[in-house]
Design the sequence.
């Protein structure tokens, strides 16, 4: 199994040159004092976006930053889900968003960008989802070490997934396979398959596209074969509920059909 990054094509208007347009920093332990009006309540250095530090999370934050006027800082915040290798099913809801939401509520960042599927169903009263941009393809992709896809997996093949949903649908499609917990970012999971630790894994097509990754030996599963998680492929852009001017700015990113879906 091999994978590589697709060469991105420039389209008009030209995309930002990220090293100049954004600054990426580690999360700070204390709230940051904000000054000025950019829009109202935003400091003179521009909008600070809180995000996880994985390549995919940063790519998703940049999708949002690319559509905002003025300078933007991406501030990396380590979440509980990033700090442990425990099975995700044992960690409960919000493990990838709680720390970022706290930073947003405390004023350390102005905006938070999440995968919509990671947000708990119950929304915090002090925060608001100001925008849900247009959804990427919500389907899942089965990536195998050898060519042939799902039909070629041998009996007792080990498929890595941290999602009980994906595990259940895969076992329904191929009862002879075994599913096993797998953790790590997208490229780590691909490497674990390539190195022989697993025969296959399942990843979101949206994540592969946002990372511009082209993967050999990949089979896109139909929505009937593997129904996606609610909100899979969509982003959630949060701000504080009282930041009306910023919420109005972010609302320009909202895609009404995706929000209604």
Sequence:
């Amino acid at each position: 199994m091999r994978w590589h990054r697709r060469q991105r094509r420039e389209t008009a208007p030209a995309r930002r040159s990220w090293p100049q347009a954004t600054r990426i920093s580690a999360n700070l332990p204390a709230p940051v004092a904000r000054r000025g009006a950019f829009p109202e309540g935003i400091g003179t250095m521009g909008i600070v976006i809180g995000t996880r530090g994985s390549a995919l999370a940063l790519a998703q934050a940049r999708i949002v930053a690319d559509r905002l006027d003025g300078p933007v800082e991406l501030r990396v915040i380590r979440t509980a889900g990033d700090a442990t290798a425990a099975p995700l099913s044992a960690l409960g809801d919000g493990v990838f968003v709680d720390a970022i939401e706290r930073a947003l509520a405390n004023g350390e960042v102005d905006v938070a960008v999440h995968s919509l599927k990671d947000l708990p169903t119950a929304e915090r009263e002090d925060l608001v989802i100001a925008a849900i941009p247009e959804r990427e393809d919500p389907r899942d992709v089965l990536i195998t070490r050898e060519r042939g896809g799902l039909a070629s997996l041998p009996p007792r093949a080990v498929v890595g997934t941290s999602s009980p949903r994906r595990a259940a649908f895969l076992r329904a499609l191929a009862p002879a396979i075994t599913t096993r917990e797998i953790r790590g970012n997208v490229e780590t999971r691909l490497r674990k398959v390539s190195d022989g630790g697993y025969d296959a894994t399942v990843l979101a097509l949206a994540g592969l596209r946002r990372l511009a990754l082209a993967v050999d030996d990949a089979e896109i599963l139909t929505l009937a074969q593997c129904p996606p998680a609610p909100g899979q492929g969509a982003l959630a852009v949060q701000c504080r509920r009282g930041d009306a001017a910023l919420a109005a700015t972010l609302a320009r990113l909202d895609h009404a059909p995706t929000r209604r879906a």
Q: What stands out?
A: Residues 193 and 200 are 6 Å apart (CA to CA).
